[in-house]
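User: Please check token order:
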Amino acid sequence: MEESGRKDRALRVDGLTNGRDLGGLERADGTRTPRGVFFRSDNVDRISPAGWEQVYEAGIRTVVDLRQPQEREGDTQERPAWLTTINVDLDGLENTEFWAGYWDNGLVGTALYFLPHLTEMPERAGAAISSIVNAPPGGVLFHCMGGRDRTGMIAMILLSAVNTSSEQIVGDYLETVRLGDLRAASSNRNNVEPLLNELCERHGTTTEGAFRTALAGFDLCSFIEAAGLPESDRAALDTWRGSILETVVSPCGSERPRGT
């Protein structure tokens, strides 16, 4: 997992504490995920004017916001005119029956809800993936509030789609956990990672174990079918918007020559 947490993937932007490029991770064929295509982060509303210049220099032109509408209502900062923002409510709190088992007990803050959410509401993650792979030209940054779980779920899908090593995917998720103290300090809060791990332990696992279970149980092909992603989205997902140029053998068994 060494490469997955390397600092050279960090997105150094004034106002972000948990931003990084999903590029540079080892894939099953020994190649690495392309850099400059997809980025993940915490809430971009904290980015300073100087920070937005750094975002531009990183090649990012689109932000996909995975937060709930009420969370976005708290935003206060202006964003540059060159930026495209796409809002996708990943949670779907109107499904009260589903969230009754994950919200009040704190499991929403763990990967224990990933597979149930993807099974119960695949269209939510599907809408996020579609927005990301169909964004205007340039790098795409997706985020929630802390960049941990909603962002982690979408990163898991994107990385799985191009056969990224499981250990690298796990390492990328755990990088957010390792940044717990820094993330907490940036928002003047206590680091809740120890408490979240204790919660996972009460359910027979750990923070890392919960994510490993979600990753092991995630079936990309079943998700794509359940989410109703069209063929054009599948091709863009398999090739990371055409940035993977060698012949791609997708996890669902099809071959796509040279990013087509």
Observations:
- The chain is about 40% helix and 10% strand.
